[in-house]
């Protein structure tokens, strides 16, 4: 029967480190002083949060800027363009929201084809793309 472990939220980080890697031993690192294991663990668990906070206050990534620039050139009458890297900053997937007069009287699929054509070269390096298009309301 497999043993079940439960780490209560109020348990200290040392208990979690011990549960994950055994008493003061980490794979491939050998014996580790408990205080250094706790310090390393407490820093590592915060990295995703720190990255999210950084992205919240940071300007656009290089990829976002590049895609935005291409869209501004291809859709000069656009009233709104928002490009967001939704792959965590690596440039593999973007979400694009664009509002432009050029989409007037075109079906959604045609609008998306226009965006895909405009980003033909950039799409070659992407894994995915979410496109939201609209026509400005007057």
TrEMBL record:
GO cellular component, one term: cytosol
Single GO biological process annotation from the record: iron-sulfur cluster assembly
InterPro entries per record: BolA, BolA-like_sf, Mt_Fe-S_assembly_factor
Stated family: Belongs to the BolA/IbaG family.
Assembly and oligomerization: Interacts with NFU1.
Organism: Chinchilla lanigera
Subcellular location: Mitochondrion
Keywords annotated in UniProt: Mitochondrion
Gene name per UniProt: BOLA3
Top-rank lineage group of the source organism: Eukaryota
Listed Gene3D superfamilies: BolA-like
Chief place where the protein resides: mitochondrion
Known function: Acts as a mitochondrial iron-sulfur (Fe-S) cluster assembly factor that facilitates (Fe-S) cluster insertion into a subset of mitochondrial proteins. Probably acts together with NFU1.
Name listed for the protein in its UniProt record: BolA-like protein 3
